[in-house]
Amino acid sequence: MSEHVFISGPASWNRIVVLDRLPEPVPHMQFALEEYETVGATSAGKALGLVGLGRRVRLHALFGADADGARVKRLLMQAGVALIAADGGVTERHVNLMTRAGERVSLFLSTPTDPGEGSDAELDLELRQAMADASALVLDLSELSRRLIPAAKASGRPIWTDIHDYDGESEFHRPFIEAADAIFMNADRIGDDPLPFMRSCIEGGASLVVCTLGADGAIALDERMTRHDVAAVPTAVRDTNGAGDAFMAGVLDATLAGSGLDEALEAGARHAASVLVTRHLHPSLDALLGA
Question: I need a surface site. Which of 13, 177, 204, 222 has the fewest CB within 10 A?
């Protein structure tokens, strides 16, 4: 079996604007502390992280026939990510308003459209083969990935998903939660105690649920409902974009290498710390876009 990891989800071109505080919803003026452009989106972050750890990756994402799409594809391929690109009409673009503390407001300037199953029979066949040959599948939140869930389940490969700041109610997330063997999330919107929701995921069939807690590290439940904790690795933080994706990539890489859960969580924490020191999703982009 091939050692590649199949990832489906968004890749984007982002303009990052760093502010001393997020804007209030009233007319006013603020001065940016810093601004720059870079590759963005959660699936691109996981792909870059896994490649940086030595894993082969095949990333399925939507792009447009535009300058931003060409730029994102070129940079990902230069970093070592193999692409299965589909035509989304336009390339996803964001303006992210950020603070040094990691607070963020994302403004979506353009969003690609999934052409749907059957629109390209050759591509559909390539995707099914890529999933069948993978050691693991990562399905990130998107219409693109939701359509692939039945084929992903049929492949028999372990499915990992990242539900980010799930609030416990959104119906869009439900098919991903029900299909996944491993579920990652953060605690931003789930409430004061994420453990009841995490337990419900294990009861629903998941074998691993991980909730990241920022500077407080992360907690995890295994298939026996045993709790595991990991501390964050102290580091000088330049930018928090991509830290959660790097954490999941580190855990996945270590798990595929045969590590136990505690060791895998520690690997995830180390890898998350490695991207906090760059303003890009991964340090590999420093040489391509400038540190």
Answer: 204
HEC-encoded secondary structure of the chain = CCCCEEEECCCEEEEEEEECCCCCCCCCCCCCCEEEEEEECHHHHHHHHHHHCCCCEEEEEEECCCHHHHHHHHHHHHCCCEEEEEECCCCEEEEEEEECCCCEEEEEEECCCCCCCCCCHHHHHHHHHHHHCCCEEEEECCHHHHHHHHHHHHHCCCEEEECCCCCCCCHHHHHHHHHCCEEEEECCCCCCCCHHHHHHHHHCCCCEEEEECHHHCEEEEECCCCEEEECCCCCCCCCCCCHHHHHHHHHHHHHHCCCCHHHHHHHHHHHHHHHCCCCCCCHHHHHHHCC
Tens digits of residue pLDDT in 135-158: 999 999 999 999 999 999 999 999
Contact 225/243 with Cβ under 8 angstroms?
no
**Which residue is associated with the tokens 């359509």?**
147
The whole-model pTM stands at: 0.95
Other residues' Cβ atoms within 10 Å of the Cβ of residue 215 = 10
Residue 1 pLDDT class (50, 70, 90 cuts): very low
The pLDDT confidence band at residue 100, using thresholds 50, 70 and 90, is confident
Percent of the chain with pLDDT over 70: 99
